[in-house]
């Protein structure tokens, strides 16, 4: 995943993350709740947030960066308008998940962790969505879809692109 | 029932049902009811766990709840025309829900309420026996609660199967305070979804079980650590905790007893390793999920260095009924030293995938054919992975071995969290073995070398075997590598990733031959 604090498009992120950090800093083990809250608000965690979190939690920047880098969830670059996760786990594999994965990558022209040129969506792998009795499963933002075949996938993408164009 | 009284109709709000269109069906039902002038009261229940029939719509009739499914939005006008609101027959009808063979044969203790009730209704919960266990526990000495759980024979439902009562006794006897309860709801194993179903379908059960654990060990603060892949479960759980607190089932004065227990929901961040108990503690404390050396045991020095009970969500959800019905009631289910029931989860290439809660001791054959109805593809079932991505692949010759902890250990397999993932004869077991190593490499926390490096080398060695390069030497190397990971890893991730690999090699050697 590409990452660089220098790529922060908006330097005013500090103003936005400040209140979020303040709202959570007194919780025991506040690091993950703070990172989640920032990502929920901005869609990603800008590099500018790292020293602010370190300061609030009285730890080093390296410690904050270490947490940011360790967890698959936290994004260090802005995602597309929608995040599309394909389940790669065994149950989905047993019902054609690999073929769906190949189809998705070909149709979208994207590899994992890449964002489409129109900014509509970011493709990510996921290792189980807990929807294994309705495999193959896909997640779009906070919505889980089950029994996804190529036809359903194509309809989903058309819908997302449509929504993206009018948004 | 007169025509003017709203007819109660159930449409699951479970994310599995939502994933195949339950919201559209619910909307369609409301529109059609209005159009027909037949008022309905729509209840969004949990899932009954019969996922091949989701969305499963139920109607309350004087005879009981009648089931229809799988219902698509476009089927709704037809259902109304057939008189389904009075329980009339329809091509999607299955008669009384409770009598459907898939459900009637189950022994639902932990899942007794899931699919029956409105998950967020405290009244519904209590009307179906909820909080009876907590009410009893609050009048007992901590030692008596621990004794009850010990006598029930309950063992951890997360995978390691350690006796729950013994763990609790260690925390109860530990001198430091404050003490913590951590509920492990980081259900990362592929093929498992019972934690999710419970959190979405009966969240108060988990709150009640966690609170009883706190009373038993003297903990005043608890955390439920849920994975981020379950956004829907998280929202329901969050609401349930707030409502339970507002009603005095959590907070500073539990049921007016003067005792205090606060419970907070935390979200993981997409790291499988955080399902390992010490990695989970690191994560809760705000660090990368690196596994800790043991000792000290978390029971002695756990979260923030204090005595901590860490139990799987299924273990804690089994506690309310044990307290409500007594240890003997629970203990009498099962075989050998595997007491009680396990909510098994049937997934993968299976016709009737879903949740089957049964006492230990039934066989994979019963699970796959009596409940599962064979493969979804109609082809022969060839391999079944039991117990998640670190579980062994079981061949047909072992399908008649009873599902109990000891019997499975004897064949080098494990029951784990009860996930059962089915593959038909088109599966390439060398690819599945490679995937097991790839998964381990992706999810390794990196702290110990056998897991961090071993899994990466494992992928490479399997690639060479698949390509037919120096087969004998690479097969020997893979065995040696597996042995190192098994015996040298710090935790179960590296220590068990060889299970699927070795079982694939042992039972399906032909797939590793050059094509």
Provide structural commentary.
The complex is a heterodimer of chains A (167) and B (515). Chain A is α+β, with helices and mostly antiparallel strands and 167 residues long. Chain A folds into two domains: 13-70, no CATH class; 82-163, Glutaredoxin (3-Layer(aba) Sandwich). Chain A is 46% helix and 11% strand. Chain A has seven helices and four strands; from the N terminus they run ααααβααβββα. Chain A has helices at residues 13-24, 31-42, 49-57, 61-70, 90-94, 97-108, 150-166, and strands at residues 82-87, 121-126, 138-140, 143-145. In chain A, helix 1 packs antiparallel against helix 2 (31-42). Chain A is elongated and about 50 Å long. With 515 residues, chain B is an alpha/beta fold. Chain B folds into four domains: 7-105, Glutaredoxin, CATH 3.40.30.10; 122-332, 3-Layer(aba) Sandwich (Rossmann fold), CATH 3.40.50; 334-424, Ubiquitin-like (UB roll), CATH 3.10.20; 429-512, NADH-ubiquinone oxidoreductase 51kDa subunit, iron-sulphur binding domain (de novo design (two linked rop proteins)). Chain B is 40% helix and 15% strand. In chain B, the strands form four sheets. Chain B has a five-stranded mixed β-sheet with strand order 2-1-3-4-5, with helices on one face. Chain B has a five-stranded mixed β-sheet with strand order 13-12-16-14-15. The longest helix of chain B has 18 residues, at 449-466. Chain B is globular, with a radius of gyration of 24 Å. Chain B starts with 6 loop residues before the first strand and ends in an 8-residue tail after the last helix. The model of chain B has no long low-confidence stretch (mean pLDDT 97). The chains are: A alpha+beta (167), B alpha/beta (515). Chain A: [2Fe-2S] cluster binds at residues 87, 92, 128, 132. Chain A: One of its GO terms (molecular function) is NADH dehydrogenase activity. Chain A: Its cofactor is [2Fe-2S] cluster. Chain A: Belongs to the complex I 24 kDa subunit family. Chain A: Pfam families: 2Fe-2S_thioredx (PF01257). Chain B: It comes from Candidatus Thiodictyon syntrophicum.
